[in-house]
Automatic annotation (TrEMBL):
PROSITE patterns tied to this protein: ADH_SHORT
PANTHER family the UniProt entry points to: DEHYDROGENASE/REDUCTASE SDR FAMILY MEMBER 7B (PTHR44196), DEHYDROGENASE_REDUCTASE SDR FAMILY MEMBER 7B (PTHR44196:SF1)
UniProt keyword list: Oxidoreductase
Family affiliation: Belongs to the short-chain dehydrogenases/reductases (SDR) family.
Species for this entry: Mycetocola lacteus
GO cellular component: membrane
Entry protein name: SDR family NAD(P)-dependent oxidoreductase
Length: 242
């Protein structure tokens, strides 16, 4: 799948990783980028003035909003499911409403947009759906239990989507980043990958036709660890001594 001349819809494009997706898509010759944001008036990225960019109001948890966005972007060839929420909380103390919010956004949001855009992408193929999951899809991090569960669900949804779209001309890639330097993790003090390099590496994976993309050094080495022994990630993320 080429980025050059592609027509791309990015969810959650107004800040964080999403804005870096738009920057790299434009740099790599995308013909048009639909930048989905809940409040387009608040988007202040430098690419807003680029004539190839069209801002689209989109809340991925609202089916009517998703349907309207898919109607506007009837020429799309790539959908990047980037929008996400992270609520902190553990297995015993995490608020149920926080679990629900992360599942609504990170699972059902991806499901809503994927279903709404699938007919368009099939008609316009070759095409691609790119889901931004997380390395926490493979084991939960301490105090991020609901979020990790939502990304595990998104991981399996991506697998099911890939199987159902096989032979349709729509490639499905799922990215599994480790920690990225955006607002999402602003309160957590640890080494983080630059969002620009993560966006660039995810797009490179899409061009290479990769189904699973590990877009930073930490996620790439954690993926090796997981392939050798799935329990090893549980030990690393939950810092258990087992
Ligand atoms: N940061 C990390 O360490 C990290 C690691 C692995 C994976 N990821 C994943 O990478 C993706 C991007 O995250 P980020 O780091 O850029 O986080 P971020 O800085 O918190 O940005 C989140 C983006 O998602 C949008 N969003 C949230 N709920 C939405 C909804 N219901 N409808 C539409 N847009 C919504 C936000 O829009 P508003 O401005 O309207 O809130 C914002 O644009 C997420 O899927 C996240 O889970 C992040």
């Amino acid at each position: 799948m080429q980025i050059n001349n592609a027509i791309v819809f990015v969810t959650g494009a107004g800040r964080g990783l999403g804005t870096h997706f738009v920057t790299h898509l434009l740099k790599q010759g995308a013909a048009k980028v639909y930048a989905g944001a809940r409040d387009t008036a608040r988007v202040s990225a430098e690419w807003v003035a680029d004539e190839r960019v069209q801002l689209v109001t989109l809340d991925v948890t609202d089916p009517a909003s998703v349907a309207a966005a898919a109607e506007v972007a009837a020429d799309a060839t790539i959908l990047i499911n980037n929008a996400g929420t992270l609520s902190f909380g553990g297995a015993l103390d995490g608020a149920i409403e926080d679990y629900r919010l992360d599942l609504e956004t990170n699972l059902f949001g991806v499901l809503n947009t994927s279903r709404a855009f699938a007919p368009t992408l099939i008609a316009n193929g070759p095409a691609a759906i790119v889901n931004v999951a997380s390395i926490l899809a493979f084991a939960p991090a301490r105090n991020m239990t609901g979020y990790s569960i939502s990304k595990a669900a998104a991981h399996e949804f991506g697998q099911a989507l890939r199987a159902e779209l096989q032979g349709s001309g729509v490639q499905v890639s799922v990215a599994y980043p480790a920690q990225i330097d955006t607002e999402m993790l602003s309160g957590v003090d640890m080494d983080k990958a630059s969002p620009s390099s993560v966006a660039e590496r995810i797009l490179a994976g899409v061009v290479a036709g990769e189904r699973d993309i590990y877009p930073d050094d930490a996620s790439a080495s954690l993926a090796v660890l997981y392939a050798e022994n799935p329990w090893s990630l549980e030990r690393v993320f939950l810092r258990t001594g087992e």
